[in-house]
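FAQ: What does a ligand-bound record look like?

Like this one, built around pyridoxal-5'-phosphate:
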Amino acid sequence: MKTAEIKQLYDQYVVPTYAPSIALVRGEGCHVWDPEGNRYLDFAGGIAVSSLGHGHPALVRAISEQAGHLIHASNLFFNEWQPRLAQAIVRHLGPGKCFFSNSGAEANEALIKLARKWGAGQTIGKAGQTAGKAGRYEIISMQNSFHGRTLGTMAATGQEKIRKGFDPIPEGFKQVPYDDLEAVKRATGDKTAAVLIECIQGEGGVRAASMEFVRGLRDWCDRSRLLLFCDSVQCGIGRTGKFCSFQHYGVEVDGVSLAKALGGGFPIGAVWIRQPYADVFEVGSHATTFGGSPLAARAALTVLEVIERENLIDQAARMGDYLAAGLNRLKGAFPKIIKEIRGKGLMIGIELHEEHKPWIKKLSAAGLLLVPTGTHVLRLLPPLIITEKEADEALEIMNRAFGA
Ligand SMILES: Cc1ncc(COP(=O)(O)O)c(C=O)c1O
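The answer part, i.e. the structure of the complex:
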C-alpha cells in the first residue's frame, strides 16, 4: 500500500489520537523507508525505543526463535526468560527484584501502587519494616513531567494539557516545580508516601535535574521516610551514558520504571524495586496477563546482552558528545533559529526560538526524522548504534535546512 491509501484507511478506521503524515514499511540499522521508497535517517528512534536500530540480527533471531518455541503462557507458569531478565536488570541497578508490565505507563502504575501499599502500613517480609505510619498515599511529582496516559499516571503527570477533559482526576498526587527541593519539602505532609521524578524530563523538553536537587531529594526522602522513585522509561537503558539517568547523580533510589528501549521495539515494561521494598507486593497484590511473557522477556534480555556486548552505554555517551559538539556548531551558525542545545548522551533537545512544527516537517522532507516536544523543542533520540558518519549525515541535513 502507498502512503495515501494507508492514510485514507487510517482516517476512516483509527481513532484520531495521533496525526502522522509518513508511513514506514522497513528499517535497517539507523534508517527507515516509506512505501514510496524514500529513505530517512531515524533520529526519532521510535521515541527512544529502537536503541539497537532496526533489524538487529541478534534481536531478530531471538524473537523468531522464541516465537517458534513459546510466545505466551501467562504468569501462572514460570518461564526462564523472566527471572533471567530480572537478574540482568538487578545487575545494573543493584539488589532488588523486578515486576514486568507491557508499557511505561503500567510500570509507573506499579510504582504508584507500591507506594500506596507501603504507605498503608504494609509489613515488609522478613525485614518487618513498615511505613512507620499508615495512611500515607500521596505522591509528589514534578511540573512538566510525563509518566503516562492511564488515569493514575496522568494524575502523576505535571502537564495540564494531558489531563484536560478527564476530570475527576484521581486524588493523591501533588506537583511541584522541577528542580526545587524547597517546594518538595513544603509539599511533604503526613500523607506523603513517595516522590517520583524523571532525572531527565523527556516530554517536558529534555531537561536534566541538578545534582543538588537529586542528592537533596534523596536526603529529604531518607529523613522523611519517603520512597524515591525514578521514571527511567525514556532516559533509561543506556541512552544517557549510564544504564539509568539517576546513576549520573551517585544516589540510590527505591524504585525504577523502565520500558521503551527495554524490548528494543518489542513491548515490555518493568519496575525494579530495591530491597527491602521488593517484598511489599505479595501473591495477588498486582498482576498482568502479558507482562514478562517468554517472548517479551527474551527479546529484552537479548537487548541488554547486545548493549553489554557492543558497549552501547559508552557509545551513547561518546556519540552524544560528538552530536552535541556538532549541534553547538550549528547553534553558532544559526543563532536566530537555535536557542539552546541540552541533554545527556543520546537524549538531546534543540530548543528553537520559533515553533518546531514547520522544522519537523522540513527536516523529515529532507530525510531526517526527529521527535517534537513541547512547542519549541526538537528531540534527537537516535539508536545507540549510530556512527559518526550517520551523526554527520544528520548534522548536514540540519545545516542545509537551517541555512535554506
Ligand atoms: C518518562 C516517561 N514515562 C512514561 C511514559 C509512558 O510510557 P508508555 O507510552 O510506554 O506507556 C513515557 C512515554 O513517553 C515517558 O517518556
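Follow-up question: can I read anything off the structure? Yes, for example: The mean pLDDT is 96.
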